[in-house]
Amino acid sequence: MHRSEGLPVWASAPHRHPPETQRLNTNPPSVPLILRLSKEGCPPQEGAEHDTRLPLPRWPAYRPDYNDRTHKGGVPMAPKPDYGLDAPGDVGKFFVAGLILTGVGVLVARWRAWRKAALAAVAAGGWLLGIAALLVLSSRVGKLRERDRLLDNIELRGHERVLDVGCGRGLLLNGAAKRLTDGHAVGVDIWSTIDQSGNSPDALLANVSAEGVTESVSPTSGDIRWLPFADGSFDVVLSSLVLHNISDQTQRSQAVREIARVLKVGGRLAIADLAHTHQYAATLRDAGWTDVHQSTPHFFIFPPVRVVTGTKPA
Ligand SMILES: C[S@@+](CC[C@H](N)C(=O)[O-])C[C@H]1O[C@@H](n2cnc3c(N)ncnc32)[C@H](O)[C@@H]1O
Fold this sequence. Notes:
The protein is of the alpha/beta class and 314 residues long. Helix content is 38%, strand content 15%. It has 8 helices and 9 strands. Helix 4 (115-154) runs parallel beside helix 5. The longest helix has 40 residues, at 115-154.
């Protein structure tokens, strides 16, 4: 699309503006600068000494659509990746329960006899709202940091075949793909919207495209407990906040054994999770892995996660 499409003529015609405006206008983005110089949506006039008291013709007011992520000042923008919110139902429950408790507490506080109960309700409500806020922050900010930390530690060389089990909307998968040169990253998931908001292969593909890693990523549908890959298919297997979603302990162990199965000998894994990490480490050791490590809690994510890392023995 042409840069000036959809804009008033003056917005894309620097020669129409006085020298001062022209100079500013050479630096993109030009449109917001011109708009700041003109008053009440009026463009500066040719030859005018930039006197805003002149009876300038009125142009339709420029009203940016702040929800429009595809254009900025008429210039097409790459869409931003959106990695969703983890456990959206739980976040909603904490938020609603927190609001109700706080509201009830505030209402009841009018009656002296109920003051203590009201205080307790407000405190409990505030606590629940705090948890909801931490969960949102964790999904939107903390997880990105934890992703970078995990990838820094795994030290990809660039030519590996990487598998992200339970890739969801692709946060870890795309992060790994960006560190590859001639390697390839495969994501596998059942795309549960209970575990992540808006989770779907389409959402993943949109993020893959937004991150510019289309050439290096392949999404696949599949369950971690029965991975649809041959033995020894990958150099590195990653997983973030996935295995705890399997409620049955035996099946969680089966998922860990599947991860081990699809790794090549000498291949490495990193499993970040907020529960059961000791069990993952024990399952690997039972399978003969000697190089297995469980980290201390990492607090970028709420609840905090531990990361199990290891190398597949011969
Ligand atoms: C909290 S989300 C995390 C997604 C992604 N790893 C991230 O960090 O953004 C959990 C993911 O695990 C997936 N998942 C849950 N159980 C699964 C299973 N049995 N097999 C494959 N994926 C599963 C869900 O569909 C969801 O995408």
